[in-house]
Specification:
This protein is of the alpha/beta class and 321 residues long. The protein is 22% helix and 26% strand. It is built from 8 helices and 20 strands. The strands form 4 sheets. Strands 9, 10, 11, 12, 13, 14, 15, 16 and 17 form a 9-stranded mixed sheet that branches. A 7-stranded mixed sheet has the order 5-3-2-1-18-19-20, with no helix packed on it. The longest helix is centred in the N-terminal third of the chain and has 19 residues.
Length: 321
């Protein structure tokens, strides 16, 4: 017998509530949030301390609020803005309007910031390569690059119009009991090359694909060094993300690829779109904005699950120590 949309929605809410209740205190959780064209990642330590990395566009940031509500979170402990592009910083304005507080100053790369961001965030702290801190004692956060600098080098400047502010992206390694997660905003290939030359690219379990899968990031040499078992693309439908060259290089390096959204943009791009198969896409209908992908890590395993499936029936992977 068919049920009404309201009943179906209530069932999904109940499933999500039970999932959160049963897993909140034993696992690291990483939500790669569906903010359409943009990026936002929420990390919840087993201790329940939180870190938000980027916040998407303001008009797309409702998903952050929904996941925070589901997790019963009103205060975010730490936040990091990888760079000043609006599709990474805009959502901080919505969080403030809705009464979500950030306990510590927001980390960013420290260069001159847009006035709208400074007005919203107010308390800022420059993060530099080599800086480390912990969430709850078990989750380790380390900055590998920021403002084109690594711990050892300054990356050569690339003045191409599609690099710009992206070169400054804060690059982070998140570690938990042998599990490694790499995220770097819209990091560009000139900084990737410097990290490779410095021997500073870790072998990771999961790679949050830089620049939404654009071909200004994720060079072959860099991905060979990173060697991610799983890659997650935070993408929308406004551009040609993810691009064919990036998907191909990830596949050549045996990485299993997920996307937050299926890109239905029919425009003929110079560098074409290449969606992965539907089973690995969080949101098959981007108008619904339910494409969040969750990683939860427990012991020697981690699971990749999707919001559209109630965060159930995810695929399990082994942590590669």
């Amino acid at each position: 017998m068919n049920t009404s949309p309201v009943v179906d929605r209530l069932k999904l809410v109940l499933v999500l509530f039970l999932f959160v209740t049963l897993t909140s205190y034993s696992q690291l959780k990483i939500y790669c949030l569906d903010v359409n064209q943009g990026s936002a990642t929420l990390i919840i330590a087993p201790s329940r301390e939180t870190l938000l990395i980027d916040a998407g566009l303001k008009k797309e940031a409702d998903e952050i609020l929904e996941i925070l509500q589901m997790e019963n979170i009103r205060t975010i402990d730490y936040a990091i803005l990888t760079h000043f592009d609006d599709d990474h910083r805009g959502g901080f304005s919505l969080l403030r309007e809705k009464g979500i507080t950030i306990q510590h100053p927001v980390f960013d790369h420290g260069k001159k910031a847009p006035k709208t961001y400074v007005k919203v965030v107010k308390d800022r702290q420059k993060i530099t390569p080599g800086y480390e801190f912990k969430l709850g004692g078990d989750v380790h956060i380390k900055c590998l690059a920021a403002a084109r600098r690594t711990e050892r080098s300054l990356a050569p400047r690339n003045t191409a119009s599609n690099y710009g502010e992206n070169q400054n992206s804060v690059t982070l390694l998140i570690q938990y009991k042998g599990f490694d997660f790499f995220i770097a905003g819209d990091l560009t290939t000139n900084v990737e090359e410097t990290l490779v030359d410095d021997g500073a690219v870790p072998d990771v379990d999961v790679y949050h694909v830089s620049h939404h899968g654009a071909n200004t990031s994720s060079s072959e040499e860099f991905i060979q060094e990173l060697a991610p078992e799983v890659s997650i693309v935070s993408n929308g439908t406004g551009y040609n993300h993810p691009t064919e060259p990036v998907i191909d290089v990830l596949r050549r390096n045996d990485s299993e690829i997920y996307q937050t959204n299926k890109n239905t943009n029919s425009r003929k791009w110079a560098v074409p779109i290449k969606n992965v198969s539907n089973e690995y896409i969080g949101d098959l209908d981007p108008a619904k904005d339910k494409g969040t992908i969750l990683i939860y890590v427990d012991g020697n395993e981690y699971v990749i699950s999707m919001e559209r499936k109630g965060f159930n029936n995810g695929k399990t992977y082994k942590v590669e120590n």
